[in-house]
Specification:
Strand 2 and strand 3 form a beta hairpin. About 0% of the residues are buried. The protein folds into 2 domains: about 40 residues, no CATH class; about 35 residues, no CATH class. The longest helix has 13 residues. A 3-stranded antiparallel β-sheet has the order 1-2-3. It starts with 13 loop residues before the first strand and ends with a helix. It has 3 helices and 3 strands; from the N terminus they run βββααα. The chain has about 70 residues and is an alpha+beta fold. The radius of gyration is 17 Å and the shape is elongated.
């Protein structure tokens, strides 16, 4: 395994990684991702709903009460 020194960063207070912000405080979702999801229109078909629920399931650990919200679908 080789890493270019220019591409490496050490001792950063936070790191953006795959849509998440990693820091000493933990992992949180990038605000740009949240803003993007808030602008989505409501699903109008079963297929769109299934796709949306699959997407939101990936982020369920960041949504308090997600299991209660998902249970109603």
């Amino acid at each position: 395994l080789h890493a270019k020194q220019l591409m490496c960063g050490f001792f950063h207070p936070k790191v953006d990684f795959l849509g998440h912000i990693l820091s000493a405080c933990g992992v949180r979702t990038d605000q740009k991702k949240i803003a993007s999801v808030q602008q989505w229109t409501a699903p109008t078909s079963d297929k769109e709903l299934q796709s949306f629920l699959g997407f939101t399931n990936y982020y369920h650990q960041f949504v308090q009460g997600y299991d209660l919200l998902h249970k109603g679908t």
